[in-house]
Specification:
Blueprint lengths: L13 E4 L2 E4 L7 H11 L8 H9 L2 E7 L2 E10 L5 E6 L1 H16 L1
Antiparallel strand pairs: 1-2, 2-3, 3-4, 4-5
């Protein structure tokens, strides 16, 4: 029996802990920040067109990580929703924490 999954019909999931939120809501993603990070900080996606990124987000299961409602991380899962899934992490979360940590040490 063949079962097709409609990715647009997947239920949005969110979890909260302290000031952090993980969400699968595509509308919450800061696509422009993700694009800026990819085009400026990675070799493998340098120069990726914004529309290509938007299409990849639209056709994947996405996870945004937020701190006080500011996006600090992003990952997406590419899957057939049956037997295989590939996790595609974009780790600008570490850059955010690194910069925040350095600012705290240097300024205070």
């Amino acid at each position: 029996m063949l079962v097709l999954i409609n990715i647009t019909a997947l239920k949005i999931r969110e979890t909260h802990r302290n000031d952090y939120t993980i969400s699968t809501d595509k509308d919450k993603l800061d696509v422009f920040s993700i694009h800026k990070f990819l085009t400026n900080k990675t070799d493998w996606a340098n120069g990726i067109p914004l529309n290509t990124l938007k299409t990849s987000i639209e056709n994947s299961l996405n996870f945004g990580l937020y701190y006080k409602n500011k996006q600090i991380g992003f990952a997406r899962i590419i899957s057939d929703y049956s037997t295989i899934a590939y996790v595609y992490p974009i780790i600008f979360i570490f850059i955010y924490f690194y910069i925040n940590f350095i600012e705290r040490i240097l300024i205070k």
